[in-house]
Specification:
This protein is α/β, with parallel strands linked by helices. It has two domains: 2-202 and 212-220, P-loop containing nucleotide triphosphate hydrolases (Rossmann fold), CATH 3.40.50.300; 228-328, Orthogonal Bundle (Helicase, Ruva Protein, domain 3), CATH 1.10.8.80. Helix content is 46%, strand content 17%. The protein has helices at residues 2-17, 20-29, 36-47, 62-73, 88-92, 126-138, 173-176, 190-200, 215-225, 232-246, 266-282, 290-301, 309-313, 318-328, and strands at residues 51-55, 77-81, 93-98, 103-108, 115-119, 140-143, 146-149, 155-160, 179-184, 229-230, 260-262, 287-288, 306-307. Strands 2-5-8-1-9 form a five-stranded parallel sheet. A two-stranded antiparallel sheet has the order 3-4. A hairpin with a 4-residue loop joins β3 (93-98) and β4.
Length: 332
């Protein structure tokens, strides 16, 4: 009886705390046509306190969607264009010498915002990319001898162009692993493209999103995620998926062993759980189902599995391997 009462109480709390989701989606939809998948994943990252890597060709409204999200939440937003000549100080900030007083003062960089868009992150050398690592992992920035905590919510959304690889610097594996999800942004449908043309092919007109959610509501929603019910069988399912990426023979996929350089790290297990919770929250549910896990599994795992040269020769990608695992591991 007490269990039923607890679940009922959580259901009521979820219904109340998640009521802003529909308003947020509607407001962003006033500016961004389609791309619901991308918007939902951005919200999952925001709720799950995880960073997101966006991959897609130019012109797919990635920047517009991120800036619209920041505007609808009423948080600060900074777009950093990563270029080969970008320096770590251009991102984090630096010490500035004051000759009158003979002392140094700290000038904070654009990283001191709630939502950061790191545009074409692989255009800059590893030194600049690694400058993001402390802020992404520790939620803090060190300039000189002073460490500054970053204001919550803090979210890094990085974009990559999958076409132009000349003059790019591959992201270090340690940094890639710190992204909760890697999202592949696709082209709009024909009907969506028609609507985009009708809305955007006008001069001098610009729709601006209004603030419909406060940062406090986002932080409160994060706290609610911990109250969502997840059955032990679903937890076991999450672990089974991750272990199968390291030991495919354990689920009868021994033929994948020569194709996998290394499997997903424990961060994948943590992020699968967090992302599944956030996915259930978006559906206004107080419990996590295996379908929540399956819905976000590709986004959480695709960048955490490295394939061998043999797999590349056979044109087998990490996504193919994830799909085989999802098709094989028994769903509770």
């Amino acid at each position: 009886m007490s269990t039923e009462f607890d679940i009922s109480a959580v259901n009521d709390r979820i219904a109340k705390e998640s009521s802003f989701i529909d308003d947020l989606m509607t407001e962003i939809g006033k500016v961004v046509v389609g791309q619901r998948y991308m918007v939902e994943r951005l919200l999952i990252g925001l709720l799950g306190d995880g960073h997101i890597l966006l991959e897609g060709v130019p012109g797919l409204a990635k920047t517009l969607t991120v800036s619209s999200l920041a505007g609808a939440i009423g948080t600060s937003f900074q777009r950093i264009q990563f270029t080969p000549d970008l320096l770590p100080a251009d991102v984090l900030g630096t010490l500035v010498f004051n000759p009158k007083e003979g002392s140094f003062s700290i000038k904070q960089g654009p990283i001191f915002s709630n939502i950061i868009l790191a545009d074409e992150i692989n255009r800059s050398p590893a030194k600049v990319q690694s400058a993001l690592l402390e802020s992404m992992q520790e939620r803090q920035v060190t300039i000189g001898e002073t460490t500054f905590p970053l204001e919550a919510p803090f979210l890094v959304l990085a974009t990559q162009n999958p076409i132009e690889q000349e003059g790019t610097y591959p992201l270090p594996e340690a940094q890639v692993d710190r992204f909760m999800m890697k999202i592949k942004v696709g082209y709009p449908t024909r009907d969506e493209e028609l609507e985009i043309m009708r809305r955007m092919a006008r001069t001098g007109e610009k729709t601006v999103v209004r603030e419909v959610v406060t940062p406090k509501q986002i932080l409160d929603a994060r706290a609610v995620l911990n109250a969502l019910y997840i059955d032990e069988r679903v937890e076991q399912y999450i672990v089974d998926l991750v272990v199968a990426s390291r030991e495919p023979e354990s689920v009868g996929l021994g033929m994948l062993k020569p194709l996998i350089e290394y499997g997903a790290s424990p961060r994948a297990t943590i992020n699968l759980n967090l992302a599944a919770r956030a996915h259930a929250f978006l559906q206004h549910r107080a419990y996590i189902t295996p379908e929540d896990v399956r819905s976000i599994a590709m986004d959480v795992l695709r960048h955490r599995i490295a394939v061998t040269y043999e797999a590349e020769a056979e044109e087998i990608s990490s996504e193919d391997i994830v799909q085989r695992i999802l098709d094989t591991v028994e769903v509770p």
